[in-house]
Write a structure and sequence with these properties.
elongated; 65% helix; 108 residues; mainly alpha
Length: 108
């Protein structure tokens, strides 16, 4: 584009003007101002309509909330471990640590 002659640039400008005038003519034919499709209009809702919708939504939620049971959910019983079992596990852990420490000292 940078190595165009003055006559080529003038011709390009003429073509661009012609395109703009044709677009303008098309928009006049189709009735729009800029040649593009007219933007969609947003629907407006009256305040009364919004109130009716809000009331219906509140009624639906009240119905849903009213169906909930009032009984409290039953909690699972906590698992408890006897003192003998805890002592057995602790002794096994101590033995594992003793073995691990002994192996660590041998490698030094």
């Amino acid at each position: 584009m940078t190595n165009l002659s003055a006559s080529q640039l003038r011709r390009a400008a003429d073509i661009k003007d012609k395109i703009a005038s044709l677009k303008k003519e098309l928009s006049r034919l189709f009735g729009s101002t800029d040649g593009a499709a007219a933007p969609r209009k947003r629907r407006k809702m009256s305040a009364a309509g919004r109130r009716k919708i809000a009331a219906a939504a509140r009624a639906r939620w009240a119905k849903v909330k009213g169906q909930k049971s009032t009984a409290k959910p039953v909690k699972k019983a906590k698992r408890t471990m006897s003192a003998a079992a805890r002592a057995k596990i602790a002794a096994a852990a101590r033995a594992r640590w003793k073995k691990a420490k002994a192996q660590g000292k041998k490698s030094l």
